[in-house]
Amino acid sequence: MTEQLHSAGLYTRSEHIDSWTVRAAKPLSYEVRICEDAFDLGSTALLEGAGTSTGTGPLRRFVVIDEEVAVLHGERIEKYFAHHGVDFRLHRVKANETVKDFDTAGGIVEALDAFGINRRQEPIIVIGGGVLMDIVGLVANLYRRGTPVLRVPTTLIGLVDAGVGVKTGVNFNGHKNRLGTYFATSLTLLDRSFLATVDRRHIANGLAEILKIALIKDQQLFALLEEHGDQLLATKLQGSPLAQGRVAAQVVQRAVHGMLEELQPNLWETELERVVDYGHTFSPTIEMRALPALLHGEAVCLDMALTTVIAERRGLVTEEQRERVLGVMGKLELPRWHPLLEAGLLASALEETVRHRDGQQRLPLPVGIGDAVFVNDVTAEELAAAVDELRRADSRVPAATS
To answer: For labelling, which of 194, 278, 309, 333 has a CA lying 20 to 30 Å from the CA of 368?
Structure first.
């Protein structure tokens, strides 16, 4: 039986053609852009690309916005769209991990249907944090089998993590992001000015994901957090281009670049050894079990604290490096210990992660500060010993004071 090529990408396996193999490729390109004010009246960034006018009427935009963001920024956002003559609907959504589900997604779809959009020329715009961007990304991917979406993250974790990749998802059956897809936005605008109205704890929440990038690939970023972390937290990464503002801009730029550098060659996770999974082995279980007591970045930090101790016990991290890491966590007002760090729960969490990573642990551990290695042999006994050691280490490292 000879394989024959009858047209580009279409293969048949017999002369009478009773079997077909279809091969196709779709190029992917999306932009993540730092900007000073996404809703400056002189900016047209949110009206670019797929959303150009067809010439048959005014631009139309369905805008999904976090209800808290709407209270703080809704007036100027509405003024922006009105200024540009846009026919828009501002759909407010309560967004947090407790309502990151199909019901919330369904409510967005119902409002979207009521407004009505052209699926290629009128992209959905989402303004909010990582939870809302994940939900709206899933809606956009499913709606008419794919509708463009533009993102304006308003939290730090949205700016440096959730807003720069291609993952979408909702929680289901007690599991974090159990249902989701890969779907690229057309454009993400990173506007640091939104952080001025984010509360201190949520700034720390985002700094945890920045610390992740520092620990597994960027010593210079770690040094910036070590020296300036408390001030970054206090100023909410605001400030002029001089002094503290320059540091904040550099921290965001390095974090985003580092994240994209890891994601770009492996967007669909065909390779399951991903250093950006550092801090995400035990944290999904911890976060969902503690919900709503722990934020995502806080759960990630607990995971990183534990795995830093595991790495030290294996000789991958020195005691001095471990103390520095735990010290920065304290400076960023992030938790290093929680009662849910219990050996039995952690062993179950690792089993769940093994299923997620196709039968192997593929667990990233730090090597010093700024590098990582993958292991597949962490045991329940090792987890129990690391938990005990972390509890003692946490008690020795002073916590930061607000």
So the answer is: 333
Query: Is 94 annotated as catalytic?
Result: no
* Active-site position among 167, 176, 212, 331: 167
Whose tokens are 């797929």? That residue is: 50
Closest by CA to 135, choosing from 117, 151, 123, is 151
**Rounded to whole angstroms, what are the CA distances from 119 to 92, 113, 279?**
21, 11, 37
**What would the two tokens of residue 172 be?**
């289901």
* Cβ atoms of residues 158 and 69 within 8 Å: no
Give the global pTM.
Answer: 0.91
CA atoms within 13 A on the CB side of 239: 18
Task: Decide: residue 14, CB within 10 A, 0-12 exposed, 13-18 middle, 19+ buried.
Answer: exposed
Q: CB–CB of 121/49 below 8 Å?
A: no
pLDDT, tens digit (0-9, with 9 covering 90-100), for 351-388: 999 999 999 999 999 999 999 999 999 999 999 999 99
| Amino acid, res. 142 | L
pLDDT tens-digit profile of 102-116?
Answer: 999 999 999 999 999
∠ at Cα 165 (160, 168), nearest 5°?
115
User: HSE of 317 in the Cβ direction (CA atoms, 13 Å)?
Assistant: 29
CA distance 117 to 61: 8
Beta strands in 142-207 (DSSP E): 149-153, 170-172, 175-179, 187-191
Using an 8 Å Cβ cutoff, are 210 and 331 in contact?
Answer: no
Q: What are phi and psi of 367, to 5 degrees?
A: -115, 105
